[in-house]
Amino acid sequence: MQDPLILYTHPMSRGRVARWMIEETGLPYEARIIDYGAPMKSPDYLALNPMGKVPALRHGEAIVTENAAICAYLAELVPERRLAPPEDTPERAAYLRWLFFMAGPFEAFLTAKDSGALAPAFAAGYGEERALLETLERAVDGRTHLAGDRFTAADLYVAACLGYYLRIGKLEPRPAFVAFAQAHAHRPAALRAGELDNALIPRHPNPNMPASVAA
């Protein structure tokens, strides 16, 4: 019997991405909602994730945090679903590249820019804004898959990030970005995950975010 999957999340957080990914696997799981404030900083939760943030995934004795890592980990649990390309292939290289590109330069740049704390381009891991956005735009322009000719966890993560930052108005709505996000937003797993999280929002609000932003 496979160890149970437990997702620690909040319906108005990046945990929405992790739930979408779990839904893509088809594996049974339990979602435990961790509210903002004291619950997310409680000793019990900090023992699981010392960062005091969600999402986090428990799988037996394994603990995985950070959305890109959670997506990659889950993809490996269901090789029959082919959510990750085979090792030692060019597709695998592209898959890893775009998972880490979004988790690293892309998110770091947008959050730094939004807070007015951009570092000099030569010193920052995200480099110049123009180069970063053009690199991503070229990657997704006219495509629905970034690693081969089928859907992978990299497509999910890129689409989820693009969709979120477009929705909150923090990312320039270039046609290629909009098209890639929309190409995956209506996958059955994405819709199921969204419905589950949206139903929880009235009981678990985010004090720093209006409900319309998450949905």
UniProtKB/TrEMBL annotation:
Pfam families: GST_C, GST_N. SUPFAM superfamilies: GST C-terminal domain-like (SSF47616), Thioredoxin-like (SSF52833). Keywords: Transferase. GO terms for molecular function: transferase activity. Coiled coil: none annotated. PROSITE patterns: GST_NTER. Residues 2-82 form the GST N-terminal domain. PANTHER family: GLUTATHIONE S-TRANSFERASE FAMILY PROTEIN, GLUTATHIONE S-TRANSFERASE-RELATED. Belongs to the GST superfamily. This is Glutathione S-transferase family protein. It comes from Pseudoxanthomonas winnipegensis.
